[in-house]
Amino acid sequence: MVIKQASEYVQDEYEPMVGLSALDVFLARVYRFVVLAPTTVAATSAVAYTITKLLGYYKAVSWVSLGIFDLTNILYFILALHFYHTGLRGDSLVKQKKLKSHKIAVGISILIQFNFTIYLIPYGEWWAFAPFFIFFTVFFFDMFLTMWVTLGVLASVFLSWFISPEIMRVPPGPDQVPFFLIRISYLIFSAGLLLSLTHLGSKYLIEELEKYANYDTLTHLLNRKSMDGYLREASRQAQKGYPFCIIMADIDDFKHVNDTYGHDFGDEVLKYVAHTILTGVKKTDYVFRWGGEEICILLKANIEQAEAAAERIRKDIARDSVNYKNEAQVSVTVTMGVCEYVNGMTIKDMMEDADAKLYWGKRNGKNQVVVRKE
């Protein structure tokens, strides 16, 4: 068995596109735009405000306020460049953690930038640009991020109308109320539209990409490609003292099942075994389809706990039978090899050890859990 090393996936600066899943490609192409776009717009606006101020406009805006505004935008831009160069390094799990923190930073920057704008230049209709600021979060297709940024931007708008009434610029007379309602309706409608777009994108684009990129379509287990990231993360955590085990499981006499009952029934057996294993592990554990009838289980447990869990799963699988066309009940068993992480072991070492124990069990009676070869 060959496990790809991290160096095959990660270069010094960026992970190459070759061999990435559709989800990773989407993330790589969109991430840099979303990280740089808000700060680039902010930096451009800072330059524009400064030039306008030098030309004699915005006299009510103090140079101190404008200086703070410019400095803040420079810091945003430097932070964005840092994200740009570091955000996509590492395997998929590392990138997910970085992306989460970077999204929070982008959201906070957007809120600060929006408040700077509406108070720094309080004589224009800057509140109308609220959807523009919210729009930058949509590309992440993260409903939670867009929702809290939207709430923050709308709250900032409404508060600004009370803190600085001149921002309202509502015409005097009987038109005040309808004019106010038109503004609120515009903001709520625009925010609702952007939230709907985010929801649809996250549900029908990101979820579908994740499903096809990370999961086996037959068994609904995580696929072999996604397994590498989870195993490397478990190995990193093991350096901090968190134990984990790898279990390799193989369906006994699976070729005989296919030859006797057909490949369609073989698929049913695979799904039965996968479902039984999934329901027999904790939510913090991961189950992967390694290939063919072989399944890999990553357990966040020590060797004693892993052996007990494997025995329970083995018995659950053997206890029930799979119905073949309502004509026969076919018994199914599995053999498992268990390996615990020991300091200094590589993922490749663990996989080879678990695999060797698995095939020792195959040669010595099947339907058993092998923790150590006798």
List keywords for this structure.
374 residues, alpha+beta, two-stranded antiparallel sheet, 7 strands, 62% helix, disordered N terminus
Task: Briefly characterize the structure.
It is built from twelve helices and seven strands. The chain has 374 residues and is of the alpha+beta class.
Question: Mind describing the biggest β-sheet?
Answer: 5 strands, mixed
Widest β-sheet, arrangement of strands? 2-3-1-6-7
What would the principal axes of the Cα set say about the shape? elongated
Please state roughly what percent of the residues sit in beta strands, choosing from under 5%, 5-15%, 15-25%, 25-35%, 35-45% or over 45%: 5-15%
Unreliable stretches, pLDDT < 50, 5 or more residues? 1-20
Q: What Rg is obtained from the alpha carbons, in whole angstroms?
A: 29 Å
Provide an overview of this structure:
- With 374 residues, the chain is of the alpha+beta class.
- It is built from twelve helices and seven strands.
- The chain has a five-stranded mixed β-sheet, with helices on both faces. A two-stranded antiparallel ribbon has the order 4-5.
- A hairpin with a 3-residue loop joins β4 (321-324) and β5.
- α4 runs antiparallel to α5.
